Amino acid sequence: MNDFPRFDLKRQVALVTGAARGLGRAISLALANAGADVALGFRDVKTGQDLVGEIEAMGRKALPLQMDMTRMDQIVAAVDQATRHFGRLDILVNNAGIAPENLAEDVTEQDFDATLAVNLKGTFFASQAAGRVMIRQKSGRIINMGSQAGFAALPGEAIYCMTKAGITHLTKCLAVEWGKYNINVNAVAPTFIHTPGTEEFLANPANRADVVERIAALHRIGEPMEVAGAVVFLASPAASLITGETILIDGGWTAR
């Protein structure tokens, strides 16, 4: 009889980018709750001490890292520090992302470049740095943060949608290249979630009503831990045969 699926992350080491708030914070806590020690990538490392304390209170180790995803030197240094500190790196969660909202005809070159720099360039080079470690280990899990915006057009978010569609395909490409090293690469693609990043948009009653209506099956806004649950699953031994996939966590938005 085969072993039953295991969902715990005992003795695993994870690195989460954009860990300070919202989805990154929830994912970091969920990974720690599942048994992992967590390296925390912060755009400003001085902002994350409360999260460090929460993870350590769970009996897990936490390492705060300066990791501005627009800075190649900080990306490489953070992965190196996490690996040297813990002796290995088993899980990378590419959570960091930005979404400047603007109609396509009004998008500035600055907003275009900034969105690609974080969402695509930052994700790729963090994956590359972690991938090199995982290739040496002959094992690893990379989970990218996609979005339903990679599957459905959102007015005013043309550049964000483009980057998230790119994440879906990058996930497939890395999965195919690195599978021979026992590295699984997947993505999660959430709908609107209650986070500091969506708070202002969802505070508008018309916006909120429209979003709830479009989340066709469940008709409610998601919570960060509902995304974190899928990340923990993909990082766990239970997901060992899943790679190159993007799991939509959209309450039925794209099922219509």
Describe this structure in words.
The chain is of the alpha/beta class. The protein has a single domain (13-196, 223-247), classed as NAD(P)-binding Rossmann-like Domain (Rossmann fold). The chain is 44% helix and 14% strand. The protein contains eight helices and seven strands, in the order E-H-E-H-E-H-E-H-E-H-E-H-H-H-E. The protein has a seven-stranded parallel sheet with strand order 3-2-1-4-5-6-7, with helices on both faces. Helix 1 crosses helix 8 (224-235), helix 3 packs parallel to helix 4 and helix 4 packs parallel to helix 5 (158-178). The termini are far apart.
Summed up:
This protein has helices at 22-33, 49-57, 72-86, 109-137, 158-178, 199-203, 205-214, 224-235, and strands at residues 13-16, 37-42, 62-66, 91-94, 140-145, 183-190, 246-249. It is α/β, with parallel strands linked by helices and 256 residues long. It has a seven-stranded parallel β-sheet, sandwiched between helices.
